[in-house]
Structure formats: C-alpha cells, structure tokens
Amino acid sequence: MLATSTQDLYSFFHLRILQQLVAKDRPRNLPFVTKSDAMISLDLVLNFPEPIFWLGYLSTCLCLTVVTVHLYLERPSPHASRSVPAEDDHEMGASSSEQTDVAIVGGNAMGLMTALFCEQACLTGTRITVFEREIEPKQSVGESGLSTLSRAMQSIGLDLAIQSSLFNLKSGLAFYHADDPSMHIEVTNLDYSFQFDRRTLSLLLQSLCRRRGVQINNGCHAEAIRPSDKAASDSMLHEDNMCRVRVKDRKNAKESIIYARVIIDASGARSQLVSKARFAYFNCNAVWTYYRSPQVLPNELQRFEQPTTKHISFREGWMWIIRLIDWSSTPTHLLQAYIEDIFDRQAQGRPLLSIDAAAEVFGLTYEYQFSVGFVIREDMDEKPSTGSSNEHSFRHWIEKYELVSRTLAPYTRVEGSSVHRRVAPAHYNTTPVRDGLTCVGDSVAFSNPFLSRGLNIGVVGCLTAAYAVAEGLARHSMKFVSDPTPRQIQLLDFMKQIPPMLGEDYRVWHSTFASREAYERVLLPYLMAGVGHLGQYRNAVESSSEVTFNLDEELFAYGLLLPFVKPMFTVASQLMIGYSASDNEGRMRVDAEIKKLSAGFIADLRCTFGKQPYSLFVPGYDDDLNRVGLEAYQTFVDEHSKKIGCFKSFFRCQDCKNWTAELLKHCSKCTLNE
C-alpha cells in the first residue's frame, strides 16, 4: 500500500525508529531500517513530488542521526557506574520462558569473572544472566590470590585501591620444610596480589556485574536440560540451536525454562553436568580453622611478619598460613553499602575511604585473622579412630612436627572457630567443553591448592571461555566441538591441557615433600619459570589503570604449560617413587639425580628467557638459584632494583603496622584519604 501524504511518510519512519529505540531485546546487528522496510520506503518516496520527497528525506535523516547519537551515548560502558539495587534483578516466573544470550550457572567468583569478561568481549547489548543457588554469598575458606587474579581484576576496573579497601595485600609466597627449618624459599616483589575472602569477593563482583548490565539471579537452582535425542556427552544444543536451562527459584519455588545461545557452567564439583574423575596416584584431605596473630612475634618468627602466604611442607603434606581481612561479623547489607560507596567514589573521581573510616561510617566490623590448614595425602593421613573429630586431626598435625607447633605457638585460636574438613576434593571433568556449553573454574578441575591453582588458573580459563563465547555469538556458532571457531579451538586446547598438567602438578609436589633437597631443587626453578614467562621483571612499576589482562600472555599460567615443565615433573615424580630418608645410599642417589634434573631445567629457562635476575625475587639465592644468604641478597637489591625499575615495593604503616602497596602512597587501613 502506497502512502498518500507527507504525514504518512513521517509516521512510517518515526514509528520504525521508535520501535527500534524502545525494543529491549533489539538484536545488536539489526539495522534501524530493515531490508523490507527499505523496499516499502522506496515505493513511498517514488510517489511523492520532488520538494516533498527531499523534505521527508532530510527530516528522516535528521531523526535517524539524533537517535543513533542517543543510542551511542546511552550504550553500556565497560566502566560505567550506575545505581542499582542490591536485591536480585527479578524473580523468576512460574511458567515463563525467557531468553538470554549467555546463561552462567554459578554465581561464585569464577562465574562472575566470566560474566564480566563476556561483557567486555561481546558486542554491546549481549544479554548475560547469572544463576546462583545461594540467596547471598556465604563465608568460606580464604583464597590466596596471585598477581594473575589481581591483574585480571584490575583489567575490569577493580584497581589496587579498591582491592586494598577489602582484602589483605600480599607480597608473594614463602616456603619452608619441616625437616630443615633453615631452608626458606620466598618468592616476592613480583607484583601486587591479595588474600581473598570469598564472601566479600563475590559481593564485590556481583555489584560490578549489576553496574555493567549483567542480570544476577540469586537463590536460583539452575541446571542445563540435555536434548532428549543426544547422549550425555554430546551437544547441549537443541534442534533450534538454542540451549535450555531449568531454573527453580528457591524463594518462591517457581520454575522457569531459560532459552540461551550458550551455557557456561561455573557451579563447581556439584554440577549436574560434570563427569568427575579422580586424578591418578592419590587424593588429599584438608582440615582448617582460624587464628589471631600476637602483638609481637618472637625473633625466630620475624620473617612471618612479611606479607606472604606461608607454606610448611612435610612428608605427608603441607600446611598453609594465610592472613585475611575477616568481614564475617558484618551483615551483608552493610558490607554491600560499603562496596556501593567504593564504586560511587570511583565513578565520581573521589578518593576512597580508609578501611577504618568506612567501618565507622557504615557500621562495619572486621579484624585481621589467619586461615590455618593442613592438606594431607589420603594414603598417608592418620586413620581417625571411632568418635575422633576434625579437631583431633588438626591437633595431630600440629603436634607431629616441631616446626609447625613452634610456628603456631604464639598464635591464638579465634573464639568459637570450629575445624572444617574436606575429604578427597581433587577431581577433573572428562568433558569440560561440549557444543553449546563450556565449563570454567572448579567445574573443569580442582587439584592440590599448594600453589593457589584454583582462582589463579581458573581466571585464565574464564577469559579463554569469554573470548570463545564472544566469537561464537558474532559468528552465530556455538559448536565448540563439532565446528569450532579459532578462539573455540583455543578453548578446547586449554581444557585439554590443563587437567593432566594439574594432575602432574598435584603429584610432583607431594612426591618431593619427602626430600628437602628434591623439594628445593624442583620448586625453585619451576617458580622462576613463571617469573620468566610472565615477564614481571621487564615492566617498570605502572599505574593500575594501565594494567591489562592479555590472554595470549596469561595462557601459560605461571609456567604450567611451558613445554619443558611436564618432562621435569614426570621425571622428578618417578625418581621419588620408593624414596626413603633412612636409605642413605638411595637418598643420595635420588638427590643427585634431582639436582642434575634441576640444572637442566634452569638451562632450559635461560634458552627460553635469557639470563634473568632471579636473585631479585628470591631472597637468599643468586641468579643461578644457589643459596647465598640474605646479606648477599640485600646487597643485590640495593645495587640493582632501582636500575631495573621493577621492584614492587611495600611499606608498613608506622601507626597501624598494616602492609600497603607503595604505589598507593598511603595506608589503606588507617589513612582517611579525603
């Protein structure tokens, strides 16, 4: 039907523009005027006299320009800040069928980081929905972050000031051996990182997700619906090339079916889709509780004042000591208000409140505590007697080793803190990627947390998955396995390599714990492989706003996927089979072989990265990773650190004794930085 008046022409174009403007589910690539609209408009304009035609044409162009500029200005910004309620975005309907582009099952740190990476990687307007079973994040065991996680958080807008406002800063990792208290391996000054409280981390990431337009549904149990005509390990795509997620709202018991273009499973070991398998060799059990530090540590423990994650290893396993800021006594709504204030101040360019000032303003309660725990080989764990408790098991390992008992003697248990236990948690997923679905975090694998593998390698997997999803959405292909795009091939390779390497990583450390010599000779060069690959020493201290998280640089995740790492792990583990400290001849032979293996590994490091100033990052060792003592180390630091321009410095506040990054130039705990 042809138009007969100027009003008809205006009405047609204005109606189409208005429809595009208000459509909440407007596909990102849909033009303002479709092909069919263009054909109709051609018929319209051909039937108008020339003056009226040009009047209508110019009016329409002006209107289109205004709307386009409006939509551009209103687009979600990667660092946009807008006020949002702390409550869930909406309740799920009783019989509703909703659609989203990306459905993430699991609102833990890995699920939320994946959502934020997807928001950055995908085209503007991509609908991202997170389903979390818990109504609000729960208190859990602390997590030792490495610089990988800290850089990832900075890359999404959570700068050092924000992280320092909620979490305890750390300068590196420290390792001891119960058989030789003089052995002290401390890897430090690489980059800034933090000890994370999982509840607070989840609240922080949830708030940021909401501000970026990610829909968060707390209190919702979600599970993917397999196509009825496909095997359990096959595609999750149904006949319409969409996935299905069944969601049950725990608050009102209502159920919904969510249609999604792709599912990301971040629900961990409890996932209904995880085909769990145990790593070969052995598993481990863990027990832990919480302590407070004394006002003054004895002289022999002065090194424990350094802000590092402490590890004490022994034949059966290892012990961790992690200093945390504990917010568990603060109600969620108050902690949430503080987090929103942090984001508001960041958006307004205002300085953040110190932790002490925020505690007074928002009525927060916090204290510094130590998470202390043991990870014990399952085949060497003391068999608990009938009626024995987690407390009994915890005390057993304290009393068995003098270095452990002497270390914990000045510390006091937090009143009312019970001993928690996890039995044989290590596992891996045999099918972490399928058409229409990929896993991230513990849904892929969970292994020995000796080197903080969980969040730190997990976040690399999150970014890998986000890139694969973004490319799949752009190319309309979520066939990760049957017809993958280049980024999806990268995801498949990552998921294929990581679980077996985590298994080797799991085995080698627990094997070398039996020998102090083997432990030192394998651990040191491996840690330096991570230093060499990530290239921390090459970068001058930068402002947090310049930090990027580049997938191609981070994929090696502290050297775990370097080609010469696996052979060393395999040979070292084999050499330790049947190792006995009481067999002097056999012990000396194994230690000599391990030393030769270590020297070859160091040579591989030099071939790959050149000769590097490793002594700068390992107090008491030279560039060849031989012990030289702390005095020689300090001399090297004084002479070379400023020249290299890479020494990540920390200072201790004279008033509150809190450790702070020198980059911040003020104490994040007690200084009111207004």
UniProtKB/TrEMBL annotation:
Region of interest (Disordered), ranges: 78-98
Record keywords: Monooxygenase, Oxidoreductase
Gene3D superfamilies: FAD/NAD(P)-binding domain (3.50.50.60)
Source organism of the structure: Riccia sorocarpa
Any single Pfam family the record assigns to this protein: Trp_halogenase
Keyword Oxidoreductase set for record: yes
GO molecular function: monooxygenase activity
InterPro entries in the cross-refs: FAD/NAD-bd_sf (IPR036188), Flavin-dep_Halogenase_NPB (IPR050816), Flavin_halogenase (IPR006905)
Domain of life: Eukaryota
Record's protein name: Uncharacterized protein
Entry keyword Phosphoprotein: no
Family: Belongs to the flavin-dependent halogenase family.
